[in-house]
């Protein structure tokens, strides 16, 4: 595939050019931003089983990582502080390394069935505080560390993206079998997936077993 080259005549490179394309935002969109967690934001967080955390490394490389657990997995320490358990993953440590280099993070909280989302921005710190980690244990297993976020900005986000995508509409769910398994796609892009279907099936089953054994 030929690499696309953008026409420089149409590139938006400064904020004035950007904002000239759009009408001014309305007052409520500005007023809704808070620097602490109000009662509705706290309730939203307690109901949420899933969030995405955006971070950026010292070299400017951006990353967004999903985090999920039973509802209420994010601990509200006070109106300005959240704690997110770090569960076992692939040990790339992208988010954690980025936080050490640049503590600024953005969180997007999602609740299944809700079309609204909650956005939280702030400064993150990594901690191994035993008391905090033990309070986040699941199935008797505490996380190795927690991401503690000092909140600087909080606001509820409207439903347009979820309505456009029809994300929660069952009739628009796609069949997972329409694409290869995760293991096969990764192997296709790296070392090459085996042609033997039985061997591939065993690899898929091995991933499912790993999920069962290493969720916490």
TrEMBL record:
InterPro entries: Pyridox_Oxase_FMN-dep (IPR024029), Pyridox_Oxase_N (IPR011576), Split_barrel_FMN-bd (IPR012349). Residues 39-158 form the Pyridoxamine 5'-phosphate oxidase N-terminal domain. SUPFAM superfamilies: FMN-binding split barrel. Gene3D superfamilies: Electron Transport, Fmn-binding Protein, Chain A. Pfam families: PNPOx_N. It comes from the Bacteria. This is Pyridoxamine 5'-phosphate oxidase family protein. The lineage of its organism: Bacteria, Pseudomonadati, Pseudomonadota, Alphaproteobacteria, Hyphomicrobiales.
């Amino acid at each position: 595939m030929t690499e696309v080259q953008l026409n420089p005549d149409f590139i938006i490179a400064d904020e004035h050019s950007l904002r000239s394309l759009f009408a001014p935002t309305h007052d409520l969109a500005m007023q809704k931003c808070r620097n602490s967690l109000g009662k509705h934001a706290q309730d939203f967080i307690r109901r949420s089983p899933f969030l995405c955390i955006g971070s950026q490394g010292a070299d400017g490389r951006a990353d967004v990582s999903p985090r999920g657990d039973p509802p209420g997995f994010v601990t509200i320490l006070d109106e300005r502080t959240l704690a997110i358990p770090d569960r076992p993953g692939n040990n790339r440590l992208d988010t954690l390394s980025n936080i050490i280099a640049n503590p600024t993070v953005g969180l997007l909280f999602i609740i299944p069935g809700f079309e609204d989302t909650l956005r939280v921005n702030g400064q993150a710190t990594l901690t191994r505080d035993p008391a905090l980690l033990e309070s986040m244990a699941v199935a008797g297993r505490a996380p190795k560390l927690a991401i503690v976020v000092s909140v600087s900005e909080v606001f509820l986000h409207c439903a347009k993206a979820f309505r456009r995508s029809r994300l929660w509409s069952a009739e628009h769910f796609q069949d997972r079998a329409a694409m290869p398994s995760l293991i096969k796609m990764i192997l296709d892009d790296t070392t090459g997936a085996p042609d033997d279907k039985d061997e591939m099936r065993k690899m898929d089953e091995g991933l499912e077993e790993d999920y069962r054994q290493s969720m916490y």
